[in-house]
Predict the structure.
Amino acid sequence: MSGLGKKPVKCPFCSPDTAEVLIANEHAVAFRDGFPISTGHTLVIPKRHSPTLFDLSDVEQQAVWAMVAVVRTRLAREFKPDGFNVGLNDGPAAGQTVPHAHVHVIPRYKGDVEEPRGGIRWIIPAKAPYWK
């Protein structure tokens, strides 16, 4: 829902299609990203709607991070990637487009980009290649 006095907005993560859910625990679910940037790109989402992970209770946060670990293990076994990027966009200024907290678990493969060094530092390209 949007703020007080505003028209309710349907959150795409609040009612995921049960056929799409890969795994779930008491406080979190995981399913493939609808717009994957690599094979296996998966989202881990708290069941309770919150725009930021940091407004969730400690128990809910722990459940999300526990699921991230399980998802990473499953993706490693299933897709055999060469590495992972794991992260979240916290707020619109950080690139968050769905206002429901979620963690990206992104398998990475040798050769998927020309220069993988710096990883998430490439969100600000001018600051990414600190080794130059």
Notes: The chain is about 15% helix and 20% strand. The longest strand covers residues 103-108. Helices lie at 58-79. The beta strands are 21-24, 28-32, 42-46, 83-87, 103-108.
